[in-house]
Amino acid sequence: MDIYVGNLPYSVTGEDLRDLFSKFGEVADAKVISDKYSGKSKGFGFVQMNDNSNAEQAIESLNDSDLQGRNIKVNQARPKENTDRSRRER
Question: pTM higher than 0.85, yes or no?
Answer without folding.
Answer: yes
